[in-house]
Design brief:
This protein is an alpha/beta fold and about 220 residues long. The protein is about 50% helix and about 10% strand. The chain has ten helices and six strands; from the N terminus they run E-H-H-H-H-H-E-H-E-H-E-H-E-H-E-H. The chain has a six-stranded parallel sheet, sandwiched between helices.
Amino acid sequence: MTRYKCLVLDHDDTVVQSEQTTGYPCLLITLERFRPGATITLAEYARDCHELGFAEMCRRRWHFTPQELEEEFRDWMDYVKTHIPPVFPGIPELIRRQRQEGGLVCVVSHSSVVNITRDYCLHIGLQPDAVYGWDYPEELRKPNPFPLRDIMDKYRLSPEELLVVDDMKLGCAMAAPLGIKIAFAAWGRKDFPDLSREMRSLCDFSFDTPEELGAFLFSDEPPTE
């Protein structure tokens, strides 16, 4: 059996390796279009997304207007049509096992539903039970706890039956008000030791590989926080 009835997965840099392959390079293209001469390092990008989220980073750093944010989103959707991020090794097996053991797989992410479902089809061969992505109004996206409340209502689950798996702090901010446990997907932050240290201190559990998370999920041993 699975330890948690519902696994709530982030997508970018938890399931697929997208920061360096799609998110960051696409933003550089958009900056050249909207703010010629402006730039940002990968480390700065990772830190700002961790602390603020993508949209707020764009507003604070470069004062993007609502129109520019909409155009950036369209640029990104075009970019990811031809730049498909690779999946982390071990993730497909973990997700399939969760489903085989009778568990739910839900996604709460800042990616679009169409990209999440494509990646699951291509890399994993199944679809999530529910997806809460960028397509929702900004006020309902992570870190708002709305997706978790909706999952619990829809599937009649208690907070103890969910585990959130995320590589960034917004996932912690979403889970904490509801008393839902969160696991740090450390495999997605290996290049950023400062962010990793912070996440290890914030999360209930930390796993260096998907295989470690799988051993935890499908073990009969009591959890160690």
